Amino acid sequence: MKIAIVGGGISGLTTAFYIKQEKPDVKITLFEKQSSLGGKMMTKNIDGFLFEEGSNGFLSNKPDTLELVKESGSEELLLRSSDNARVRFIYKEALHQLPESAKAFLKTPLLSVFGKLRVAGEIFIPAKKDDSDETLQSFGYRRVGKEMTDAFLDPMVAGIFASTPDKISVNSAFPAVVKLEKEYGGLFKGMMKKKKKEAGPGGVLMSFKGGVSAFIASLANSMDIDIKTNSAVDTIEKNGANYDIIIDGKTEEFDRVILSTPAYESAKILRKIDSKLSRMLDDIEYSPISVVGLGYNELSHDLKGFGLLTTSSAKKEVLGVLWDSSIFTDRAPDDKKTLRVMIGGQRSPTLALKSEEELKNIAIKGVEETMGIKELPNISYVKKWKKGIPNYRLGHLERMTKLFEQLKEHKGLYLSSNAYFGVGLNDCVGNSKKVAKKVVSEM
Ligand SMILES: Cc1cc2nc3c(=O)[nH]c(=O)nc-3n(C[C@H](O)[C@H](O)[C@H](O)COP(=O)(O)OP(=O)(O)OC[C@H]3O[C@@H](n4cnc5c(N)ncnc54)[C@H](O)[C@@H]3O)c2cc1C
Predict the structure, then answer these.
(1) Residues 6+ apart with CB under 8 A from 75
(2) Ligand 1 within 6 A of 388 CB?
């Protein structure tokens, strides 16, 4: 049995790992377009400053990534975020600490007295009767009110999805929250019943010594597969019950193919065998986002915290600033400090695509306006993602049901990536594990 996996991000590698766990004798070839593996998990080391181009880590509130780390023998790489990371800030008209307790919530200037009363009133809001999809904005306005949605949910969705509350489906992007309403009748009721004890937005933020690329290398080394980098798959074609993978006019036949590529790439690769499926994949929207890493040899700001997110109402060009060297101490050499500034997203998509010089200047201006940092960085690094994070817009789940129904037409062909059922690393790992199980069960 010969299996091809296209795409060497976390989804492709996880799918390969779990197929190999169950069927060690299967021959897997993994094709990756770039010269190195990782996709959106890529660390750049510049003079000892570690800049993450995409993902910084994962939350320990779900078991999936932690299990993969342990099963692949990468446990000694695990790096727990420092206690600083528990303190988060929101920039509205000024910088405010995100309240972590009921007492702090009562005191926060982020909401007016009316806004706080409206949040407390959530307990009396009846649950939605039907299962129809709605935007995060509509969900937020209905359950916790406009003020809370604009001050808390808006920056949060910018930080996780690079999206805005009116452009994202709550059912697809935050299924756990929708479940709380459905099962318990409301968010407070649900949270009280579940007695959630974990800190922060759920669990502890974890990463890897030396950055996320260290884990990608360890995961890839843990399995006996054939990895072909600098190999962009152009298209696939049917060959009886099998598939031909075509790269630069060269053809190789496989029994099974798993596409772990972004949806728009999968659309191109599949166009010849199913134009309908290809259109459905192309219809999945992506948000552009740029990441600017700033490294300082000396910085007076103490950076005690995880970082900040801005509200749309603040009208700042930056979506947020992550205080990376405070979260994971090895991200900068001794006594030096590093920040990562996020720009663009659905809030201001054109900003994400500015030139590197302009993005660097926006980042420098952003840290001055939001944090009062006047010092200039000694080092900077810009990563532009034209299509960074899938944006699960209204109706996403319904469209995914149809898309995966259409995929059934093609026995032996599978899709695993962040485009469908979750963008976080835990989702990518959990969903890829499911795809691997399906592949094995259909062998
Ligand atoms: C700026 C940013 C910050 C993020 N921060 C976090 C975070 O802190 N925590 C978190 O949990 N998640 C975060 N995420 C999300 C998370 O990183 C991604 O959802 C996840 O890494 C996606 O993995 P993937 O394997 O599905 O896709 P990708 O990483 O996109 O991998 C797809 C791979 O396919 C390859 N490819 C494309 N076309 C072809 C082709 N034709 N042939 C062969 N190969 C091809 C690509 O080169 C790539 O390596 C972040 C994302 C971004 C962009």
Answers:
(1) 69
(2) yes
